[in-house]
Amino acid sequence: MAGKRSIAVLGSTGSIGVSTLDVIARHPDRFTVYALVALSSVDAMLAQCRQFAPRYAVMMDQRAAQVLKESLPADIPTEVLHGQEALAAVVSADEVDAVMAAIVGAAGLPSTLAAARAGKTLLLANKESLVMGGHLLMQAVRESGAWLLPIDSEHNAIFQCMPVEAGAVPSLRGVSKVLLTASGGPFRSWSLERMREATPDQACAHPNWSMGRKISVDSASLMNKGLEFIEACWIFDLAPELVEVVVHPQSIIHSMVQYRDGSVLAQMGNPDMRTPIAYGLGWPERVDAGVAPLDLVTTAHLDFEAPDESRFPCLRLARESVTTGGTAMAVCNAANEVAVAAFLDERIRFTDIPRVIEYTLGQVSPVEPDSLAVVESADAEARRVSDNYLAAVAADDKLVSLP
Ligand code: NAD
Ligand code: MG
């Protein structure tokens, strides 16, 4: 590709979005920003428009779009749009080379799918879209010839440790296992009794990574690793038996690939999302990410342990939903989103999150996920079931004892 790589950043005001723009700003000779997309944070979006002068700024919220339009100084050539249609149009625009998919949650699926169908280089951070619609998304990637470059640090590590053949398609040649590392989160050594009392702020205080609140809670419950387990199966076309979760509290090794001959390749680095982001933006070249070099002597120890599924049942629930197949993964993801939102609102306890998911998985029958409409309807049904369950138990106080 001649000239600069033109990027659309979806979820630009979030943790991944901000880190992406940090890397882009280091390379004005390589990258330009075509579009920025966010839900409703006008002030952050305004500052980003001032710095990057994108062609388009899309706010999903109409009112926020209006306020942004009124606040933009006349000398910034950015057009403000709003809503799903505008989002689908900007990700598919001819001028776009790569799309950073960093919207949080199931809300990211339509735009991620649109980018894949349009054959864009898909820099995939929004793991929920793959968990929910993996079948559709991978099919779209294959059919359009899009390149999918995983941004989730573990999958980026696996991608870096696997042989890559035509284009950006990873190959399983000689691979015997993928070792998916997990930090264990802030509650790694907590008892179930202690976790019962955990507050949202404690759950969001990750020992190694600074992230948005939803993924931080997922990291504390190990559902993040469950979602990543599903993500690994889709991206690398792996049977679930070939993926093993290993707890590695230092988050220095970001995942490993084990080969038939006994070799194990690991990708290491400081826990800073700018490394996988820069890898995706620059691919196949390496570009400066602003990340401090790894100092192994200071790190001193790399520890490993098995995950404890009795204290962290979310990991088991995610694995079981892969085995069940069909829309079970979408149901698992949706129930988790409802439960995490309820926990962050202090409507349920941390330890109730897996109970909501298990209940919902038991109520919603899986079907073949052969269209976006089917997947979205499974997602909606799971949200309804989870919401009703929460309403019922809140009423008779069996599940929750609200403060
Ligand atoms: P965040 O909460 O910090 O940011 C979310 C972004 O999405 C914001 O810009 C917000 O405006 C936008 N958004 C929210 N709802 C939207 C909607 N309905 N439509 C359009 N935009 C919407 O989240 P984050 O931590 O940056 O995570 C983003 C995604 O990346 C998640 O899927 C997460 O699992 C994944 N991820 C994050 C990290 C990390 O370190 N933060 C690491 C790996 C993967
Ligand atoms: Mg990750």
Distance between the termini: 58 Å
Q: What is the overall shape?
A: globular
* Name given to the CATH homologous superfamily of the largest domain: NAD(P)-binding Rossmann-like Domain
Q: What is the N-to-C succession of helices and strands?
A: EHEHEHEHEHEHEHEHHHHEEEHHHHHH
Beta content: 5-15%
Number of helices: 17
Mean pLDDT: 95
Domain count, please report it: 3
Pick out the low-confidence regions: none
Summarize the structure.
The protein is an alpha/beta fold. About 45% of the residues lie in helices and about 15% in strands. Helix 2 (about 40-50) crosses helix 3 (about 60-70), helix 5 (about 110-115) packs parallel to helix 6 and helix 15 packs across helix 17.
Please render the helix and strand layout as text.
Layout: E1 5-10, H1 15-25, E2 31-38, H2 42-52, E3 56-59, H3 62-71, E4 79-82, H4 84-92, E5 98-101, H5 109-117, E6 121-124, H6 127-144, E7 148-150, H7 153-161, E8 175-182, H8 192-196, H9 200-204, H10 213-221, H11 223-235, E9 243-247, E10 253-259, E11 264-268, H12 274-282, H13 296-299, H14 313-324, H15 328-344, H16 353-363, H17 372-396
Parallel strand pairs: 1-2, 1-5, 2-3, 3-4, 5-6, 6-7, 8-9
Antiparallel strand pairs: 8-10, 10-11
Bound molecules: nicotinamide-adenine-dinucleotide (NAD) and magnesium ion.
